[in-house]
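Inputs:
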Amino acid sequence: MQSNGNSTVLKIDGLTKFFGGLRAVHDFDVDIKESELVGLIGPNGAGKTTIFNMITGIYPVSSGRVMFQNNNITDLPAHEVTHLGIGRTFQNIRIFPKLTVLDNVRVAYHPHASYNVFDGILRSPRFGRGEKEMTDRARQFLSVFGLEKYQDSLASNLPYGEQRRMEIARALATEPDLLLLDEPAAGMNPGEIVELMDLIHFIRDRFDLTILLIEHQMRVVMGICEWITVIDFGEIIARGTPKEIQNNPKVIEAYLGSRAAEELK
Amino acid sequence: MKSLHRIPTWVQALIFFLVVGVVVQMAFAQGWLSEYWQQILMAGTILAVSALGLNLKYGYGGLFAIGHAAFYGIGAYASALVTKDWTTQWSGSPVGGLAGLLGIEAGFIAAAVVISLLDIGHRRRRLRERLEELVSPFEASVLTTTLTILVAGVILVVVGGGVGWLVRRAVLAVGPSLFGVLPEAIAQQVVFLVALIAGAILAALVGFVVGLPLLNLTYDYLCIATLGFGIITYVFFNNADQLIPTMKGARGMVAIPRLTTWPWVLGVFAVAIIVMRNFIYSSTGRAILAVRDDLTAADTMGINSYQYKVLAYTVGCAYAGLAGGLYAHLYAFLHPSNFTWLKSIDPFVMVVFGGVGSMTGTTMGAYVFVTLLEGLRVLPAELIDWRYVIYPLILLFVMLFRPQGIMGTSELGFLKRPKAAAEEPEKVSASEKATSESTASGSEG
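Outputs:
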């Protein structure tokens, strides 16, 4: 499976989404190879998050096909997509506010729990072993992200930046091969953004991940992505390395408007 | 307090229930408590079991489902039919009621297994998505929901009916000789236990089958749909004598054996609350809480949220049915008016008053509720009608000044959430924990 170089992890063909009469995404395609770090950018409302939601089975697909590691995952329910190895974070953080930080991460191990509900009720030895294993693994993740000191506090009491980190830790705990990050730098200050960029590089190497990233902050995208796809009004308008994208007139037009693009020439 | 934490949780629970059980039993035997207060104490404990079930649905599961009283009633009538048959043989055989009940349950289980093998929930979603390309989303939703209920109904009748008939014949054949080997008094207690469990299982099964199509709904929509089921059940109880004459319909079922005693009530309550604690503080419990907190996020954690909603709802209904069985054998009289949808509000009051998502709070809520309604009868005769002023006013003030309920989401004693930390050095310091807790209650308040 692993280390055979550049096999395709995610392949999307002709992905289209209609909300009633509104065409949110039109004929989107992408081909992501193993351990690449790819950016997906575009102005507000371009359909980036809709694409994420279709990949992860939260929205049904209007037409098109999503292939993940040679499995057709089009329209699979969200939990099954996760089982196959796609983890994600959300643009507006979606933590479990009334669970502790440790439990937020431990939830990710539930589908692989080594004990069943009756072991839990009877507190059998299997329950003890399974629970200890989950707890130890969750703690490891927390310590990688520097969150272990918060483990017993409610997730809703964490500072914003820590909540974002916890959400990434939780997504990684599902043991994904592909990680989808939806605007991880939203609401962060420049210092935190630098830290985040280091973190993304670090988790990719440490956990052998392929990463697809939505981002508004050009610094993040330009700084860490190997190549970038730009969409506007649901359609791909450009694709290439960060350098190419920066100088692409269509991208400048999409972000700054056509008059500004004229003036820049 | 440090030394208390070294005692294993199950020993703490055992000591607690032994002490409470013996003290109260002594108070009963010595006549320190009048028969009236004995009944209130038992009724409060029974309602606590029922409210624990609603707390699982609403507090832990986040399911705003009215209709808890329907499941309370199902458990009550079902278990009463079993025990009453043992003494009066209304169906012609001492195990006739039991055979019928077990037949229905086996039929339900067989139907449920078939339904789950067919993966109906999933198919329904797929069908709706396909239909949305042809008709409007609204029509697609209506069509698929109707179709789902229809298909589930057909499976229930065909598969359930067949299996149920076989099981009923089997129980009728071997039941009398099975119970016949025991002395009469013991046999009756055994029958009571079987009746309680069978009643709880029936409530759970009905909840499961009702929940399957309904639990795709959220909030108010789920509330209205489950309310509808509550009304259907009430109408059924009112006219049940058409089906089973012994249930007496609107006249009320009488002469149910008075088998509910303090040891039974406390024993059932102890088992119920310990099972609930262990259930909710397990991986499965965490999954239920995660689905409550954020359904979409839970799905992306690999949790099939729909499945856990159905689980929470079904187990919650089982608790209602179990409590209903005890209730039926406490007063020896059942009337449909005790199971109207209005009675479904009562456990809500207990849960919200005590603390949504707190077992301690829910139990306290049940006792406060019973004490306020029944206990205020000690008021002088000219003030007694003020009960219905005093009790709502108390609720009003609690909600105004402590909207999270008496306990909030906190627990006492052995019901506390086990801390994961302990052996690690980097646990949260006491001061940090205190601030986090104060901000938690602050944000709720």
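Remarks. The domain at 32-61+69-94+176-264 of chain A is CATH 3.40.50.300 (Rossmann fold). Chain A has eleven helices and ten strands.
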